[in-house]
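TICKET: design request
STATUS: open
ATTACHED STRUCTURE:
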């Protein structure tokens, strides 16, 4: 009898597609990697599976244990899916301003939610609960298995899909796992590849992109792995998100709009480049926000 794959086998190997209309007249090739095609709908499926699987292999956790994580959304949904696959109780602590779709997706996978005021408070509470013996914190912000997931999968996929011709990699920065792991792999193949990270402009609130206070800066972050950091305004990210849906048929979230907006900005400064931006998730988890009605 032929062995059939499980849903976990379909994490990764996402499509890389070319922008057709937003790119305009240019000598550059503008590509986006569709991470919304992962089973739980975002790039965070990769580190979620990596963090839980690696912890199991080390004997740190066992099926039936309680796992705790602070999340703004996508990581929580991905962890809830992996916990469901592997048989863990999952407690997720998240800001109460997260969209209804994100909360509903987590509970659909069986996770328990605790709502707090913001991400810093969520991270503090997760560690406090662990100290009280209420579960094991995976800690995406300090867990090396987060960037390792992208070193082992996202980076190699992009290198293979572009035939090694990539010149620029653009990614929003939240936990920074995606940009850290992918940068490490791409720079090992070709040190000339430019790594571009995005953070929100002061006063902008973009789900999935953070400008962390120094005391909360993810410890997995290494500034030397990012060649350039660009500030993106909320309006610019939201406008590009809507244009991606209406002009490219790519339905995604706000941080993905920010990444593509940055790629379009960079494309005006160079020639004959091959750029790749990460489309972190799907737009359906932002519908209740009203962002697509404008």
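STATUS: resolved
RESOLUTION: sequence designed for all positions
ATTACHED SEQUENCE:
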């Amino acid at each position: 009898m032929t062995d059939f794959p499980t849903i976990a086998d379909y994490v990764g190997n996402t499509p890389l597609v070319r922008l057709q209309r937003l790119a305009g007249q240019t000598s550059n090739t503008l590509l986006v990697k569709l991470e919304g095609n992962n089973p739980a709908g975002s790039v965070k499926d990769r580190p979620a599976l990596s963090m839980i699987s690696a912890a199991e292999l080390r004997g740190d956790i066992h099926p039936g244990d309680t796992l705790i994580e602070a999340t703004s959304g996508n990581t929580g949904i991905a962890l809830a899916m992996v916990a469901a696959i592997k048989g863990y109780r999952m407690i997720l602590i998240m800001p109460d301003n997260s969209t209804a779709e994100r909360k509903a997706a987590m509970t659909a996978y069986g996770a328990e939610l605790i709502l707090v005021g913001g991400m810093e408070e969520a991270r503090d509470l997760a560690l406090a609960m662990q100290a009280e013996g209420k579960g094991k914190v995976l800690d995406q912000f300090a867990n090396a298995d987060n960037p390792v997931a992208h070193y082992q999968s996202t980076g190699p996929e992009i290198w293979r899909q572009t035939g090694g011709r990539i010149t620029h990699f653009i990614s929003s920065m939240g936990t920074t796992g995606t940009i850290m792991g992918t940068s490490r792999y791409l720079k090992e193949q070709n040190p000339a590849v430019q790594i571009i990270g995005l953070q929100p402009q002061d006063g902008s609130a973009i789900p999935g992109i953070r400008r962390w206070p120094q005391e909360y800066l993810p410890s997995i972050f290494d500034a030397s792995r990012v060649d350039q950091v660009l500030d993106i305004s909320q309006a610019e990210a939201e406008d590009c998100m809507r244009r991606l849906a209406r002009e490219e048929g790519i339905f995604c979230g706000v941080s993905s709009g920010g990444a593509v907006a940055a790629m379009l900005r960079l494309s005006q400064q160079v020639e004959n480049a091959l750029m790749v931006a990460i489309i972190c998730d799907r737009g359906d988890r932002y519908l209740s926000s009203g962002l697509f009605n404008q």
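CLOSING REMARK: The two ends are 53 Å apart (CA to CA). The chain has a mean pLDDT of 95.
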